[in-house]
């Protein structure tokens, strides 16, 4: 049974035993050797495939190339076998923290993998690169890797349920540092005391502002979770050497809650598995059919439907206004409520456009489709009729959609809203959608064959057919893999693919 931990700020003169601190409670969950449920294992396999799919599609993009080159410029640590880098030959390895960095950027670059949304946002698949990198370096088998990933998902999702970071303009990767550290602790079978120190260090080093997702969004958006994963690896290494970390990191008078979040009078109720309870949080997360912010998924599906039902109706001359009535999060993060002029700028970066629901809805409405490259192309964003229609799209917060967004009832929880399209002649189209088609409650829920289809679609341009089959075979046997097979759990690009990618030089 889940245990809810009441977390508040403690003054320095108040006693808060280590065992009662949130970081220690997280560590106890990580150290609990409970077996992983079969349906959780199946979903972990799905997400390992999903991560590799989106990484394959991003191999030649500049941010991924830069991160990969940084990793390749670092040798394997002396005390392990090293870890693989997406795209590179199996024998080409680097130190695990740099593999976590390079692979984390590849996974996040296209904003195309899994998500969990509650009090905070998260992409819990970001836990996989650092945990896998350490598994490869330390010679751990598939069963250990599965246990570690289950913990990473559990901790990040549980923190996301309870503690809002974005409300205080703190980037959501502050939940990822602790979760990845906890997952690595589970993977390695570390004691709770060691994991506790790693969690504290990981949180302390991964709190940063949300400017990475505001205004003109830069390439750091993809690097931020990779940095958190890298810091988690380093935090575990430091804790294993017997070093300590700031404590109490959450509850302290000068800690994260008091100064970065809701302040000295704040309190949160954080749900965590009870001792002996299986880690099942991954089952509450969901992946993306489309390469865009998760809160845009349902809107793309609705726009696609409207295009097919009213083809040719949505020209700038015909449409007077389009209003998307939606949740607080959608309105203020990717909608017009953000008050970011860049969200309406045809010259904006791809990172900015994938956080602009006015742009995304416009293109999906006009094209009846969404593509991870073509829909963001500069010439597509600059099309005259697109810009004209785009500027007629706004969002508005709707209390009922906000309530459903935060609902604890999975049958009621929603990430969509209601669109009101008003035409120049006064006519209207009013439609709504609660969840994306690929959502577990959507029109076409994603299953194993959908993850495999997504992987094949994104990997075929850059991987040889036999490499696609090799990876899929390994991934689908994940809990049975030997340590040697875990070290081969990566994707190797076709000859010449990486040679044609940017190879920027830097300090290393």
Automatic annotation (TrEMBL):
Coiled-coil region list: none
Reaction(s) the record says it catalyses: (2S,3S)-2-methylcitrate = 2-methyl-cis-aconitate + H2O
Domain MmgE/PrpD N-terminal: 20-267
Pfam families: MmgE_PrpD_C (PF19305), MmgE_PrpD_N (PF03972)
GO molecular function: 2-methylcitrate dehydratase activity
Keywords of the record: Lyase
Family note: Belongs to the PrpD family.
Record protein name field: 2-methylcitrate dehydratase
Start and end residues of each MmgE/PrpD C-terminal domain: 290-477
Enzyme Commission number, as recorded: 4.2.1.79
Subunit and partners: Monomer.
